[in-house]
Amino acid sequence: MNTHFDDHAVTWDNDPKKIERATAFAIEINKFIKPNRKLDALEFGCGTGLLSFQLKDFFKTITLADNSEGMINALQEKIAKNNIQHFKPLYLDEASSKLPNKAFDVIYTLMTLHHIHDLDGIIKKLYDSLKNGAYLCIADLVKEDGTFHSKFPDFDGHKGFDKKELSKLLASMGFEMVHYSICYEIERAFDDGVIKYPLFLMIAKKIK
Fold first, then answer.
1. Reduced DSSP (H G I as helix, E B as strand, rest coil) percent helix, strand, coil of the chain, to 5
2. How far apart, in Å, are the Cα atoms of 134 and each of 40, 77, 82?
3. What is the pLDDT of residues 10-62, one digit of tens each?
4. What SS3 state is found at 118?
């Protein structure tokens, strides 16, 4: 999927629905976390940083990580254009790159987790990067029938996530789910009509 994201990085922000979606989740994250410019955050799978740009006035620092070079390049241009000093872009090779240990008060990720095959591995990596008592915010698709990516025949990720199954996985890794809400819907048109796909925000606290 990296080639897809690299190819679309330059025009990614042209879709107002993506900005609308990022805004909806930023409001919900800020409402629950209340960072007050005192916390260090990581956006995992940041793309061009749409979510972090909506949260930029609320965190002390934000590290923005992605494994698409095209997205990181577009992000760096936006950071320079807006003269943002507390954003730290980070190119991540999913297979080998390491995140700093116990460095973040909050990690948030939007529409990224369903692309990752090794959920256990990535959640362990994010767990290790969080300080004790810190928060992991996952925004993604509610479990769906597989039609969401039907126009992308090479997609081999997850068909969204079930609330109970995901919270059980997080619990096994040392997290406790503390918040769950449906924040947004994506509409997609098909020959036989429009399907609405709800997106959830799950916030889990590192307790072990």
1. 35, 30, 35
2. 10, 30, 29
3. 666 678 999 999 999 999 999 999 999 999 999 999 999 999 999 999 999 99
4. coil
CA geometry: angle 69, 129, 77, nearest 5 deg: 30
Q: Which amino acid is at 88?
A: K
Number of Cβ within 10 Å of residue 205's Cβ equals 17
Of 144, 149, 150, nearest to 198 by C-alpha is 144
| Integer Cα distance of 198 and 141 in angstroms | 6
Q: Are 60 and 39 in contact (CB under 8 A)?
A: yes
Which tokens is 60 given? 């002390």
134, HSE (Cβ side, Cα atoms, 13 Å): 21
pLDDT in tens, 142-165: 999 999 998 888 888 999 999 999
The answer to whether residues 60 and 33 touch, using CB atoms and an 8 Å cutoff, is no
To the question of pTM greater than 0.70 for the whole model, the response is yes
Token digits of residue 128: 């290790």
Task: Please choose, from the candidates 198, 42, 51, the residue with its C-alpha nearest in 3D space to the C-alpha of residue 122.
Answer: 42
Distance in angstroms (rounded) separating the CA atoms of residues 102 and 134: 9
State the Cα–Cα distance between residues 88 and 83, nearest whole angstrom: 12
Distance CA 107, CA 39 (A): 11
Q: Which two tokens stand for residue 93?
A: 């090779």
Q: Is 203 exposed, middle or buried (0-12, 13-18, 19+ CB in 10 A)?
A: buried
Other C-beta atoms lying within 10 Å of the C-beta of residue 51: 29
